[in-house]
């Protein structure tokens, strides 16, 4: 017995009605799904190559958050400026890189670490100040040291705030990747938080020490000849339009020759000899911040000076920037010399501190293969 024949498709002849024509679906690979990327065979997916075997949380929440036409946006930037370039133009700095996305912040700063680290610092500072009041720690200060703090540590507050608010806040918007933006933004937060710590400390001292003038620092910053070199240097840094030059000139040159000189090689060295065990803990937090910020800056510059295509040109340009900014910071540092003789108890001569600061800068420049300015040997 043979099988029944398959029914013929209805062409409409039996009913005399025309048959509707439907488009037939065609299944093709979606463009993104057909691509091979670092984690194609993994249960967790990302579109970048991790620095280590596996992506860190820092990389997962930071990398490619800011899209880039060279990586994902085939149609170009999704927004732009009126009569200008779109997105994050690379010509906002004269330095060049074959791949800006290679940068990784050695501090691995992301949202959680920013709040956690700064909260820990603020908590420690507040506890130290509260304990100082309870133990009447300021009673052992020499009068000359109180004058030194009200004038000079108060003046330094303006430098920190100016750099945080007008140098790093601007630079973090101009950098071409989110990894760079995050690192520079944290640098800005460090500076402004430290300036705020100094301001609150100034208020505490005004309320606690009889005769302490908590307002004199403004006149010192604007008019005292000792601080006018530092003020000029800071204001010129705030006016620098090239974001990478601003970061380099601040974190490598100004901080090494002026910041470390004042914070670490003066205040933290002689405070205890003048009966002050509180100020070093506060200033030390600012110095710790700078060491972290110096870390990401050196990582960035090392990436640029070792770039296969642009490394030599970058080193030459950084050498030119060094020749431009080092004389300004050296002059600012020399202008500070008179404050080394203001405290009653001191054991570190200015020239020794100055030579140590210059040696520190020379070491950083040599490590980065950047030509060392002859001004450092003067």
Q: What attributes does this structure have?
A:
378 residues; 56% helix; elongated; mainly alpha
Would you mind describing this structure in some detail?
The chain has 10 helices and no strands. By secondary structure, it is an all-alpha fold. Helix 2 packs parallel to helix 4 and helix 4 packs antiparallel against helix 8. The chain is elongated, with a radius of gyration of 30 Å.
Structural class call reads: mainly alpha
Shape: elongated
Helix percent band = 55-70%
Mean pLDDT: 88
- Oligomeric status: single chain
Number of helices: 10
Q: Uncertain segments of ≥5 residues (pLDDT<50)?
A: none
Relative strand content:
under 5%
- The SSE order reads HHHHHHHHHH
Number of strands: 0
| Cα-atom radius of gyration | 30 Å
**Terminal Cα span:** 112 Å
Give the helix/strand layout.
Elements (H helix, E strand, L loop, with lengths): L56 H6 L48 H24 L8 H32 L3 H31 L7 H8 L1 H14 L4 H28 L8 H27 L5 H25 L14 H18 L11
Helix pairs in contact: 2-4, 3-4, 3-5, 3-6, 3-7, 4-8, 5-6, 6-7, 6-9, 7-8, 7-9, 7-10
């Amino acid at each position: 017995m043979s099988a029944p024949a398959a029914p013929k498709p209805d062409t409409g002849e039996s009913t005399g009605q025309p048959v509707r024509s439907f488009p037939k679906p065609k299944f093709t690979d979606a463009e993104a799904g057909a691509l091979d990327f670092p984690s194609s065979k993994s249960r967790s997916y990302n579109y970048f190559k991790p620095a280590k075997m596996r992506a860190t949380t820092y990389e997962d929440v930071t990398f490619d958050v800011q899209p880039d036409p060279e990586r994902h946006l085939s149609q170009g930037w999704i927004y732009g400026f009126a009569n200008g370039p779109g997105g994050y133009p690379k010509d906002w700095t004269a330095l060049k890189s074959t791949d800006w996305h290679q940068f990784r912040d050695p501090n691995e700063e992301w949202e959680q670490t920013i709040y956690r680290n700064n909260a820990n610092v603020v908590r420690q500072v507040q506890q130290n100040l509260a304990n100082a009041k309870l133990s009447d720690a300021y009673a052992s200060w020499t009068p000359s040291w109180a004058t030194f703090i009200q004038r000079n540590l108060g003046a330094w507050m303006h430098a920190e705030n100016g750099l945080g608010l007008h140098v790093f806040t601007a630079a973090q918007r101009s950098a071409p990747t989110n990894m760079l933006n995050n690192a520079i933004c944290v640098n800005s937060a460090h500076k402004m938080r430290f300036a705020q710590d100094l301001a609150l400390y100034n208020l505490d001292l005004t309320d606690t020490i009889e005769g302490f003038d908590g307002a004199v620092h403004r006149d010192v910053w604007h008019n005292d000849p000792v601080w006018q070199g530092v003020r000029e240097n800071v204001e010129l840094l705030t006016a620098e339009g090239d974001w990478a030059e601003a970061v380099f000139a601040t974190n490598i040159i100004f901080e090494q020759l002026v910041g470390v000189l004042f914070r670490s090689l003066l205040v933290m060295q002689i405070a205890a000899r003048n009966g002050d065990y509180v100020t070093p803990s506060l200033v030390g937090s600012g110095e710790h911040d700078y060491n972290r910020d110096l870390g990401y800056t050196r990582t960035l510059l090392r990436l640029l000076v070792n770039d296969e295509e642009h490394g030599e040109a970058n080193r030459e340009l950084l050498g030119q920037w060094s020749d431009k900014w080092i004389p300004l910071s050296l002059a600012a540092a020399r202008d500070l010399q008179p404050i080394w003789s203001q405290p009653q108890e001191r054991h570190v001569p200015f020239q020794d501190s100055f030579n140590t600061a210059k040696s520190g800068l020379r070491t950083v420049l040599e490590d980065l293969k950047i030509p060392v300015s002859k001004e450092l040997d003067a």
